[in-house]
Design a protein that fits this description.
Blueprint (H helix, E strand, L loop, with lengths): L1 H19 L2 E3 L9 E2 H7 L8 E10 L2 E10 L2 E10 H12 L6 H8 L7 H6 L5 E7 L4 E10 L2 E5 L4 E5 L3 E6 L10 H22 L12 H17 L1 H12 L3 E4 L2 H8 L2
Antiparallel strand pairs: 1-3, 2-3, 3-4, 4-5, 6-7, 6-10, 7-8, 8-9, 10-11
């Protein structure tokens, strides 16, 4: 029992000595002992570290420092360590000290336009179905009708197929946040689609040979039937055409959905 107690005391003293030797470095008066994601974005201390949650700098002695970075990547927390010299720490300190203090006003101003932070909320609130233009992270352009969003996966109806794209794989999205009401145009659309259907039927009739009955009389009733049928088809599709026109006339917005794309666009 006594031996176990002595071992416990020795272990406790050993860890106490080790922890007492850990020297947490405050990089600047502008940041705390732990650099959070807001400070990192504002001061761009570690701009290449994606998903940074917080970071801490510890002196290891002999001009060696360890930077411990906690990240959130794909919903999972991970921890990485970087080892640097005093020269690199001083360079970071100068970089931060040369910038203004991070205030609530500066923080609000910084986050304006950072749509990638609110990407999930924006995507799930889009009025659908609607025609969208997407830019994949590999640069590929995808155009089609967004008809469903499920677990941050966008379902796009293209001309010849349905494609599914994860939100995390998108750089940009062009969409319409709302569809304006153009009811005053509906009568013109209905009239236009009816005329279009009638005109197509007339063209079809002109390209068909004349049909005669058993008495040698031209079947003009067939031509009339085709023209009426074409007009009705035009009227049936008038609603879809009206919706398409309303969508095209509504204002379009383009948002950036990835931090890397945002930095390429705005951070020089």
């Amino acid at each position: 029992m006594v031996k176990n107690f002595i071992k416990l005391i020795i272990t406790f003293l050993t860890w106490s000595v080790l922890f007492s030797q850990i020297d947490v470095i405050i990089l600047s008066n502008n940041v705390g002992t732990e650099i959070d994601e807001h400070e990192n974005r504002f001061y761009r201390i570690f701009p290449k570290e994606r998903g940074l949650k917080n970071a801490q700098i510890v002196s290891l002695g002999q001009d060696q420092y360890r930077i411990t970075i906690v990240k959130i990547l794909k919903g999972k927390e991970t921890k990485v360590s970087r080892y640097v010299t005093g020269k690199e720490i001083n360079k970071l300190r100068t970089h931060v000290d040369e910038q203004p203090v991070l205030t609530n006003e500066a923080l609000t101003l910084m986050y304006e336009g950072m749509d990638f932070i609110r990407a999930e909320k924006i995507i799930n609130e889009l009025p659908i179905p609607q025609y969208v233009m997407l830019e994949h992270s590999d640069g590929v352009q995808v155009n089609g009708t967004l008809f469903n969003v499920d677990k941050n996966v966008l379902h796009i109806q293209m001309v010849d197929k349905i494609t599914r794209i994860k939100l995390e794989n998108l750089n940009r999205l062009s969409y319409r946040p709302f569809i304006n009401n153009y009811e005053e145009l509906r009568p013109y659309v209905i009239f236009g689609t009816a005329i279009f259907g009638y005109a197509l039927a007339r063209i079809y009739n002109d390209q068909r040979p004349t049909t005669y009955n058993e008495y040698g009389i031209p079947r003009n009733d067939l031509k009339t039937y085709r023209e009426i049928f074409g007009t009705i088809i035009g009227l049936i599709f008038s609603s879809e055409v009206f919706d398409a026109i309303s969508t095209l006339l509504s204002p379009k917005e383009t948002i950036i959905l990835s931090e890397a794309e945002y930095e390429r666009e705005y951070i020089k």
